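To illustrate this point, we now present one chain and its tokenised fold:
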Amino acid sequence: MRIRPGPAGLWGLWKKKTFTFAGPPDRLRLESGAEIGPITLAYETCGTLNPDKTNAVLVLHALSGDSHVAGYYDPKDAKPGWWDIMVGPGKGIDTDQYFVICSNIIGSCCGSTGPASVNPETGEEYGTRFPMVTIGDMVEAQKALLDHLGIDTLLSVIGGSVGGMQVLEWCARFPERVRSAVPLATTSRHSALAIAFNEVARQAIMADPNWNEGHYYSGKKPDMGLAIARMIGHITYLSDESMRLKFGRKLQNRSALSFEFGAEFQVESYLQYQGKKFIERFDANSFLYITKAADYFDLARQYGFKAFSRCRAKFLVVSYTSDWLYPTYQSREMVKAMKKNDLDVSFCEIDAQWGHDAFLLPNDRLDHLMAGFLKGVFDEIE
């Protein structure tokens, strides 16, 4: 692979776009039976769609992600998009070769319609009047965006964590539109452990007096509850080994115990910092809705125990040795079900010490796996 350009590279200047659809009377009907519209999706693209429209790759973000997957809005930006290590010229998902699309999911707060959006019928924010959404509803909205872009078939759908759930949903819901798929660090349904952590996080938000049943937009926000929810979630994204190596039992700016309630240990200070940083960019209600959608996700419940029989895509399934939120056995169960349905599937468990978040960190093995897999699928078309 070639050397990755730095922040000053003009290739990285992505631009956020929006697409609005499902205006009355053609509202989007959700799995719950509720209807909503109009809906706006924030999205970004990079690369060039070829004349045959066979090189489109849809990248799907995790819980707190957004449409800004890579590059920079401005050369002065402190950080690039959330997966800049993977998406760009000469990278695993090469924007010199592929037309990359990333949209912010419905229910989020990063440019797409969600509980923080204004309900046009009332002139006020939806709050908890926003209908419950599912992973399937998110995919239906993405399908509308692709229709708008004139893309009938995707070369690949790629995503990790909650993004990986969307990958699986795409393959089962619209099998004729997906040539290949890369679900990373994900599962076909949440375990009781994953649901339990999400519920504790949601309760932290709803117990905050400022939550006000979800209608807090004109007053104080439930920042404390959201910060605690993020701290809880962040623990599940790490691993015992990564926390031991990074923090151990090191004290924060002290040589001895203070015998006070406060952030004495470095790991305590780190979690508090993550919580404070999160409240600056994310909405508490969106956290509630997206975690609930993840808990509802169950491919077998939705499509039956032979859910993968609906799929036609070629799969690359990736797990990580230290991911205890979505451990490797869950990926192996998916691979076994795929093979029973005669799907073309490759599987790789990557040795990584950083826990669930390992798919967001630099890894040469994943770079080469991704690049080789996409090239193989694309070469089959040519």
Notes: The two ends are 22 Å apart (CA to CA). Residues 77 and 381 are 38 Å apart (CA to CA).
